[in-house]
């Protein structure tokens, strides 16, 4: 029991406390500046915030332990008695420090980031909402009643929520593809393309383009996030505008126009023929979230 | 040997990570974040966003797992656990499959818990079955799947059934081939590096069983005894110290896993991956491979699967939905923090075979049912 292990024990407790508290404070800062939603969906954010409190708590306990060790109170906590002395060489210690502290500092201290059209290209931009029907499901038949709306929105019991939502959208003079129910709105429009052709619609999002669309076109899209930015899927709509070339990738825009049909990679999708376009600031929360209450 | 190899893997990974970070950081060129010779600003943004989001999402669940593990360490005795586990292997495996309903900890939180349970004498095949089944067979995942496939609610049912069947199959195969006494945990991990006794015990794995705990268990329970005699405040401190130990042990692997997953998501495109193969067999294999590399949580992968609807048959989506929660890239690294490399490899192979076979079978059944 010489003096050296005691100092390294204290150093280890303190180093760990710094890392734990650092992570906790980083989360607190993200939460305070509102940028937590760049990484975690609001649904999951509560758990992450709770974890930050827990980490700070454990960090405090470690500091307390280090102080006690400093006072020479070896019976407290776990001293050498149960094998808590820093085990291993300096290389091992250094490696552990490097693995934790360096990436954390680098990732956490650099400015907040988000994903954009580069990631959308890697993940594949979806242009027709979620494909709701399984391949082996029957195509819905128009219902027996002869009401005009029912003919426009044929459905079975499973696709009824989309038909109901479609009828609601159909009644509006201009369909706003808003943040709330972004995904459900795009899906409904794509599920009944014929019923919506010729209707007016507006949408906001970031500009994306790839080889599959024409010179006078671009895609305006958003990432739909379920739990965190790692599971984001880009959903968008083709926009046709004579000024298309003016708008660079990742620029945020609001456009409105008339819905029409076009073909991308041999698949028929909806397209917005734009008559009004404005550049906007990127949304504070760039992502959209599936509506858990849809159809419930 | 394996442990030595593991240590070197970790050191090399740390070195690799530093090198990559150096390249990323060296691209700062004054008016950062615009451009870098190696990784463009867009890609750096993607890497950072995915890394931070994976880390922050896994964090609460890993912490929960670490806390549950510390509670198990302090309050559940080996004897109590032995009484709870059915002796009959078939019954044991079936119970392990359903354990996720009562103890729904997600993939990241589960590994410290299972490691603690195995240390306390739970047979390896039971623990493994729980690791495989719990992320799928639990109410949270069922609900998430249901809401992602709103117009095809049977997907949630198929996913649960397939996950149950595949986990049970792997559990029973493990029992058949490695028996009750196999001890798959790494020797050099854990909050109790009692030198000597470990290596002795691990070089003779056959002495371990849940009826005759090895020297490690005795050491662990002796420690628990010692802890229980101490004052409450110092018990609490030791609880925190254990939690911190385990947090850092798992955290290393989470960090590495999240970072490499972020690189994969940024540099491997879905189109390139999809171009690799076609046909029924190819589509199942591809969806499983995709699930492995993107390393998503079982509560969020259903929406990703739904985005493949229409591109691939439903049974390939099921393969994605069942395989991903069982094993994926991030999860493999975290398994390596607790288990011997060889055991992890066997687990990967068994899970792959089971999910591939069962999802192909499900596909055949679905096609016949439709026609």
What does this structure look like?
The complex is a heterodimer of chains A (296) and B (371). Helices cover 39% and strands 20% of the residues of chain A. In chain A, helix 1 (4-33) packs antiparallel against helix 2 (42-70), helix 1 (4-33) runs parallel beside helix 3 and helix 6 (160-170) packs across helix 7 (182-191). Chain A is built from eight helices and seven strands. A five-stranded mixed beta barrel of chain A has the order 2-3-4-6-5. The N and C termini of chain A lie far apart (66 Å). With 296 residues, chain A is an alpha/beta fold. Chain B has one domain (48-370). Chain B has helices at residues 2-26, 41-75, 78-84, 89-102, 107-119, 124-133, 139-148, 154-178, 197-203, 215-229, 232-267, 270-274, 279-294, 301-306, 314-326, 329-338, 341-370. In chain B, helix 2 (41-75) packs parallel to helix 5 (107-119) and helix 2 (41-75) packs antiparallel against helix 11 (232-267). The longest helix of chain B is centred in the last third of the chain and has 36 residues, at 232-267. Chain B starts with a helix and ends with a helix. The model of chain B is unreliable at 27-37 and 189-228 (pLDDT under 50). At the A-B interface, helix 1, helix 2, helix 3 and helix 4 of A face helix 1, helix 2, helix 7, helix 11 and helix 14 of B.
Keywords:
heterodimer; A: 296 residues; alpha/beta; 2 domains; 5-stranded mixed β-barrel; 8 helices; 7 strands; 39% helix; B: 371 residues; mainly alpha; 17 helices; globular
Structural shape of chain B: globular
Distance between the termini of chain A: 66 Å
The secondary-structure class of chain B comes to mainly alpha
The description of the largest β-sheet of chain B is: none
Strand order of the largest sheet of chain A: 2-3-4-6-5
The low-confidence runs of chain A, each spanning 5 or more residues with pLDDT under 50, are 75-86
Percent strand of chain B? under 5%
Helicity of chain B, as a percent range: over 70%
How many domain regions of chain B?
1
The average pLDDT score of chain A comes to 84
Radius of gyration of chain B: 22 Å
Radius of gyration of chain A: 27 Å
Number of strands of chain B: 0
Helix content estimate of chain A:
25-40%
Mean pLDDT of chain B: 77
Oligomer: heterodimer
User: What is the count of DSSP helices of chain B, taking H or I runs of 4+ residues?
Assistant: 17
């Amino acid at each position: 029991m010489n003096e050296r292990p005691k100092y390294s024990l204290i150093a280890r407790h303190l180093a760990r406390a710094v890392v734990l508290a650092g992570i906790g404070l980083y989360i607190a800062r993200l939460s305070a500046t509102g940028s937590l939603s760049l990484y975690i969906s609001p649904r999951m954010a509560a758990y992450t915030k709770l974890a930050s409190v827990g980490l700070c708590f454990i960090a405090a306990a470690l500091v307390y332990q280090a102080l006690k060790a400093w006072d020479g109170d070896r019976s407290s906590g776990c001293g050498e008695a149960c094998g808590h002395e820093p085990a291993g060489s300096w290389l091992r210690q250094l490696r552990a420090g490097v693995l934790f502290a360096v990436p954390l500092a680098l990732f956490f201290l650099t400015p907040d980031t988000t994903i954009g059209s580069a990631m959308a290209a890697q993940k594949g931009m979806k242009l027709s909402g979620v494909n709701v029907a399984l391949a082996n499901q029957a195509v819905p038949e128009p219902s027996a009643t002869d009401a005009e709306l029912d003919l426009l929105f044929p459905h079975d019991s499973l696709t009824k929520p989309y038909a109901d939502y479609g009828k609601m959208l159909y009644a509006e003079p201009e369909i706003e593809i808003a943040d709330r129910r972004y995904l459900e709105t795009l899906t409904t429009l794509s599920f009944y393309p014929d019923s919506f052709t010729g209707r007016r619609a507006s949408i906001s999002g970031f500009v994306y383009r790839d080889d599959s669309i024409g010179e006078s076109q671009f895609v305006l899209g958003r990432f739909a996030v379920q739990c965190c930015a790692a599971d984001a899927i880009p959903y968008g709509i083709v926009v046709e505008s004579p000024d298309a070339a003016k708008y660079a990738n990742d620029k945020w825009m609001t456009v409105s126009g008339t819905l029409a049909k076009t073909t991308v990679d041999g698949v028929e999708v909806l397209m917005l023929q734009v008559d009004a376009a404005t550049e906007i600031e990127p949304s504070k929360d760039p992502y959209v979230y599936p509506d858990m209450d849809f159809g419930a | 040997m394996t442990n030595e190899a593991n240590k070197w893997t970790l050191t090399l990974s740390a070195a690799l990570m530093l090198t990559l970070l150096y390249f990323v950081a060296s691209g700062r060129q004054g008016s950062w974040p615009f451009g870098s010779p190696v990784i463009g600003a867009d890609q750096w943004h993607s890497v950072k966003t995915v890394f931070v989001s994976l880390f922050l999402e896994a964090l609460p669940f890993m912490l929960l797992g670490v806390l549950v593990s510390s509670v198990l360490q302090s309050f559940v005795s080996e004897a109590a656990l032995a009484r709870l586990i059915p002796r009959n292997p078939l019954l044991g495996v079936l119970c392990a499959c359903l354990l996720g309903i009562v103890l729904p900890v997600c993939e990241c939180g589960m590994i410290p818990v299972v490691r603690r349970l195995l240390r306390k004498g739970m047979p390896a095949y039971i623990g493994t079955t729980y690791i495989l089944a719990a992320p799928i067979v639990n109410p949270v995942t069922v609900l998430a799947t249901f809401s992602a496939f709103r117009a095809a609610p049977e997907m949630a049912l198929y996913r649960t059934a397939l996950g149950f069947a595949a986990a049970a199959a792997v559990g029973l195969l493990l029992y058949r081939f490695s028996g009750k006494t196999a001890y798959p945990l790494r020797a050099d991990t854990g909050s109790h590096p009692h030198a000597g006794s470990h290596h002795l015990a691990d070089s003779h794995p056959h002495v371990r069983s849940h009826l005759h705990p090895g020297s490690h268990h005795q050491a662990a329970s002796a420690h628990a005894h010692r802890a229980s005699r101490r004052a409450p405040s110092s018990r609490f401190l030791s609880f925190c110290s254990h939690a911190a130990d385990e947090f850092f042990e798992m955290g290393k692997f989470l960090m590495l896993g999240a970072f490499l997953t972020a690189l994969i998501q940024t540099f491997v495109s879905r189109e390139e991956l999809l171009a690799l193969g076609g046909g029924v067999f190819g589509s199942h294999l591809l969806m499983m491979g995709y699930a492995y590399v993107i390393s998503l949580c079982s509560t969020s992968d259903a929406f990703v699967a739904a985005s493949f609807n229409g591109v691939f048959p439903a049974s390939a989506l099921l393969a994605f939905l069942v395989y991903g929660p069982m094993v994926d890239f991030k999860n493999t690294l975290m398994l390596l923090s607790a288990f011997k490399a060889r055991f992890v490899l066997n687990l990967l192979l068994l899970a792959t075979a089971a999910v591939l076979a069962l999802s192909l079978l499900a596909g055949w059944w679905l096609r016949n049912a439709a026609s």
